[in-house]
Amino acid sequence: MTLAMDEAPGMPLNRAMLKSARRRERRILSGLALPALVLVACILLIPFAWLAWLSLFDAAGNLSAQNYARLLRPAYVGSFLTTFKVAGLVTALCVVFGYPVAYLLSQLSARAAQILLVFVILPFWTSVLVRTYAWLVLLQRNGVINDWLLSMGVIGEPLALVHNLTGTIIGMVHVMLPFLILPLYASMKAIDPVLLRAAANCGASPSQAFRQVFLPLSMPGLASGIALTFVLCLGFYLTPALLGGGRVAMWSTQIADAVSKFSNWGAASALSVALLVVTAVVLWGVRRLTDALSFSAGKP
Amino acid sequence: MLNTPATSTQVTHGQRLWLYATVALVMAFLVIPCILVIPMSFSDSQYLEFPPRSLSLRWYEAFFTSTEWIQSAVVSLKVAGLTTVLATVLGMLASYGLYKATSVFTPITRGLLMLPMMIPLIFVAIGVFFVYARFGLNNTITGLVLAHTTLAIPFVMIAVGNGLKSFDPNLERAARSLGASPVTAFLTVTLPQIRISVFSGMLFAFVTSFDEVVVSLFVSSGANSTLTKRMFANIRDQVDPTVAAISSMLVALSIVVLIAAQFVKRKDA
């Protein structure tokens, strides 16, 4: 491991020796990532390859597309549609609620922004399970929200807010909002305020300056926030499983049921492979889109 | 006050009241569920109410006197502790190696190591469950630690990578030219400089493991159930207020962690 420069004085230092010493050190340094790589290979890549292989065979062990053909059954197609509907709706709600928050944070002084960021980061650091439980308690039939609405006379009888799609979406928006707000805030923070002042100097009204300068410049950050949220929603298990109460069949809950209820590894593996492919395609598509957007926003 | 300009485009605070109102509502939506569970956990009744009609510690007592709950809390702490050590060491080595020696393989290595963060947890869970079944690793602490370490490595690498980005590599070169071996130079010069980042990576690794539910749900059971697995089963099958007491303690813990993180950051600056 010693470099040529560590050798005793008087040793002939020639270029070849230095070069080979440097190469040896580089090899050792590149090897430092090896233990982590081996672990990732054992825990992620081998199971993936194994499941993908398994998905190509039917129950009798013959090569067939049966497992994938099964995905076209109405029950599975329904769950894909639900998954995309939920992911789309949750992402849209996150954009509607998250964009104003990120915008205001980016306009405030560093000190004020830091204080307000605590409101975004506290839920981010709190376990998803705890937050999902909190929503369950708040939204249940005799929960706080129904109690308040009843006592204020807004509703005549308790609303079904949980163990259905409504509860799932409320809980998921709560989990996903920080994932949209934090990257969006970071990218808005990088927009030079001088550009907005320049727009105002050139006669743009405040809303014009926002629409024609700020909004386009915030698009790449928004696109990557949307991609992150959407992809996280596609494979999200915990909240749909608890707040959906078994009534919201999503992709992830179907995979879990195929394994734990039916021990149907063929279906589970085909569903998983399809989920990974869709996730990868969405990520790739958005990256292309983001590149195009940042290009049109003037950043080569 | 309302008529003073708020931005460089001369929008006044009055014209932005709707923005302030929206942001306040979103902030309330984000924080209230996390906080509200604390007063409710002191409720005396079987049904959680807010505000609680009478106060008691019975749900905390239910937690601390239950061997099952305590056992699973110990399992979770043990797994999270071991994961923190393993993930920090592996993540730091990988991050440092990739930082020092860049080659054509660097992007793909980095991509592979970041993969656990991007892959849906449900997939990791069933994949690990499937492979562990062949090696007898299901329901073992070892199995949980290995899976959680994989999930935590990306977070450690991001944290340590950030530290290395602001580290001056000349300091290490100076140490080497003064005769320090690569290991000594790393341990006595580089590591102390990036210690805050390493520490935040450790924090992330601990939280990743301690809060992890989906993988634990599949690969832990019986005496080696994690706290989150037991909570999940409890929440799904009945709304037991003991979970409210545990949740409150976890929320309190995240507030403490948040304050500690702010404090470390300030000290660092």
From TrEMBL, chain A:
Keywords: Cell membrane, Membrane, Transmembrane, Transmembrane helix, Transport. Its main location: membrane. GO terms for cellular component: plasma membrane. Signal peptide: none annotated. The keyword Transmembrane applies. One of its GO terms (biological process) is transmembrane transport. The chain crosses the membrane at residues 32-56, 76-103, 115-139, 159-182, 221-245, 265-286. The keyword Transferase does not apply. It is a multi-pass membrane protein. It is found in: Cell membrane. Residues 80-286 form the ABC transmembrane type-1 domain. CDD domains: TM_PBP2. It comes from the Bacteria. Pfam families: BPD_transp_1. Belongs to the binding-protein-dependent transport system permease family. CysTW subfamily. This is Putative spermidine/putrescine transport system permease protein/spermidine/putrescine transport system permease protein. It comes from Shinella granuli.
UniProtKB/TrEMBL annotation, chain B:
GO terms for biological process: transmembrane transport. This is Putative spermidine/putrescine transport system permease protein. Residues 73-261 form the ABC transmembrane type-1 domain. InterPro entries: MetI-like, MetI-like_sf. The chain crosses the membrane at residues 17-42, 79-99, 111-135, 141-164, 243-264. CDD domains: TM_PBP2. The keyword Repeat does not apply. It holds the Pfam family BPD_transp_1. Belongs to the binding-protein-dependent transport system permease family. Keywords: Cell inner membrane, Cell membrane, Membrane, Transmembrane, Transmembrane helix, Transport. PROSITE patterns: ABC_TM1 (PS50928). It is a multi-pass membrane protein.
